[in-house]
Amino acid sequence: MHDNKGYYKLLNLKPGASVSEVKKAYNLMLMKYHPDMGSIAKQLKTIEDEAERNKKFEEINEMCKKLNDAKTVLTDSEKKELYDQGVDENASGYDMSGFDIFEFMGGRRDKGPKKVANTEFHVKFTLKDSFLGRKKTFSVKREVICTACEGRGGEKSTMCATCKGEGEIGIKRQMGLIFSIDRSACPDCRGSGHIVEGPLCSECKGQRYCQKQESVTVTFDKGFKNDDTVVCRGKGDEHVGCIPGDLVLIINIKEDQHFKRVDNHIVTTADIDLYTALVGGTITLRHIDDSVLNVKIDRIKNLREGVIIVKGAGFPGGDLHIIPNFVYGNVKEEELKKVLPCPKLSKNNGVACTGTQGKLPTEKKRNANNFKENIFSQFFRGF
């Protein structure tokens, strides 16, 4: 029997294995290398380096192509017979010499320790905090390995025979030709991986873990944004035989009454009297960091859409945009007369009258009952 292209070796079979053995081996390999549901793919998703993760997924896809080529040849009776004789005209070959599944997974022959799920914590800030930057101390409750029993739960414990100490068992499910394995907590050891024998630990009461309150101080740099995250490595929960989880701080910034952030710019409003708006001058406003800005401005050419911009006064790389709120009350009539010409009365022989200031009229709603009464009263008035 020949295996010139390495198809049998790829499937961990001896040359000449039967078609049923090939199909069974193919399904087992697919459980590992399927890009979406394979066990290896699930492990690769935990790789933090995006470039390395993408590279590994490309290798998985290439491996699936090789498996499909092997299946195409070895499950077809005619092609398989030719291949076993050393003749294969239809399938492209792959040199599997030197291929090591563990080397493919990063040079390790063990699965490596799992990482505990991260702990997420929402942190509230004001827009002023974001502008200035903040150092904040948090009180964090963590689940840590009991130091009294070193995570055994008692004086003595043995590895669970059902899950082999993993704390999980796999349930095999078949969807057509594809198999998947769902993981769930082991019912015998309740996910601990070990079974306590003898007296329970007085500290953790056999639970293997204790609750610990810790203080964590974090510096949030100036300019942080809403929904930004800060990761505190290893400050999450601990599990025996696993890498501790991380504490992930999710930033929530409360909206400000007077200031709004747009990218790295700050937008606010300021009262400007008409005299300053028409001839220019200086306006004063309190910035988000409580500093007082005396902003010198030229006359505003467009009173409807004009916005005053103070360069570099926003977040890093941004500006302060001031929307004018024009006021008349602070301006003396004599000052306005100096800059505004008096309107000339047109000679149109019109009627002189006086106008006063007030509000627009509102339409009164008609009462249905009164309307009916009026109709009837008018009707009977004719008799």
Name the CATH homologous superfamily of the domain at 259-346 and 353-361: Urease metallochaperone UreE, N-terminal domain
Question: Strand sequence of the main sheet, in spatial order?
Answer: 10-11-15-14
Give the biggest sheet. Answer: 4 strands, mixed
Tell me the total number of β-strands: 15
Rg (CA only) = 39 Å
Series of secondary-structure elements, N-terminal to C-terminal: HHHHHHEHEEEEEEEEEEHEEEEHH
- The tally of helices reads 10
Please, what is the average pLDDT? Answer: 78
Level-1 CATH class name of the domain at 259-346 and 353-361:
Mainly Beta
Sum up the overall morphology in one term: elongated
Helix fraction, binned, reads 10-25%
What percentage of the residues does DSSP assign to strands (E)? 25-35%
CATH architecture of the domain at 259-346 and 353-361: Sandwich
Low-confidence stretches: 88-110
**End-to-end distance:** 123 Å
Supply the helix-strand structural class: alpha+beta
CATH topology of the domain at 259-346 and 353-361: HSP40/DNAj peptide-binding domain
